[in-house]
Amino acid sequence: MLLEGVKKRQENLLGSENLIKESVCGEFLDCYLGDCESCSNTEPRTARKLMSLTEESGDEEVSYYYWSREYKKEKLQTTFADAKAQLVKQLAAMKRHSFLANVQLRQIRAAKENVANTHAVM
Ligand SMILES: [Zn+2]
Questions:
Q1: What count of other Cβ atoms lies within 10 Å of the Cβ of residue 82?
Q2: What is the pLDDT of residues 34-71, one digit of tens each?
Q3: How far does the centroid of ligand 1 lie from the alpha carbon of residue 25, in Å?
Q4: pLDDT score, position 103
Q5: What per-residue confidence (pLDDT) applies to 121?
Q6: What is the pLDDT of residue 120?
Q7: What's the CA-to-centroid distance between 42 and ligand 1, angstroms?
Q8: What are the pLDDT digits (tens) for 63-73?
Q9: Could you tell me the distance, in angstroms and rounded to a whole number, from the CA of residue 43 to the centre of ligand 1?
């Protein structure tokens, strides 16, 4: 929902799947779980990506819906810059969630074995 809010201001923004791809260095389990040494801090990567896509100053108003603690859908009015900062923060949780949601337990186990063999730490 936050992503949709930002998209209203920035139509060429990548979809969440692509944003997640941009925030990891490879298709490794560690990357998606935030345990990879080279890409665990997604903020610089994603922020750079988002900034390069926009020419806006960041003061423009953006509104988006979010789920409150009481599980109510609430509307939040904020600035474009703030919404982008939030988006970058949420991405770490998003990539983890999307990965776990899309992959079978069996595949996770296989990936774990692969990580040990092919994911060199530099
Ligand atoms: Zn990585």
A1: 13
A2: 888 888 776 666 666 666 656 666 678 888 888 888 88
A3: 4
A4: 67
A5: 56
A6: 60
A7: 10
A8: 888 888 888 88
A9: 13
Structure tokens at 3: 């992503």
Cα 28 to ligand 1 centroid, rounded to whole Å: 7
CA of 4 to the centre of ligand 1 (A): 26
How many Å apart are CA 22 and CA 75, to the nearest integer? 28
How far is residue 61 from each of residues 28, 49, 83, 92, measured CA to CA in Å? 37, 21, 9, 24
Structural domain total, the chain: 1
d(CA 14, CA 4) in angstroms, rounded, equals 11
Question: Ligand 1 centroid to 119 CA: how many Å?
Answer: 9
Name the DSSP letter for residue 11: T
pLDDT at 30 over 80: yes
What range does the domain containing 101 cover? Answer: 2-118
Please give the distance, rounded to the nearest whole angstrom, from the Cα atom of residue 98 to the centre of ligand 1. 16
pTM for this predicted structure: 0.56
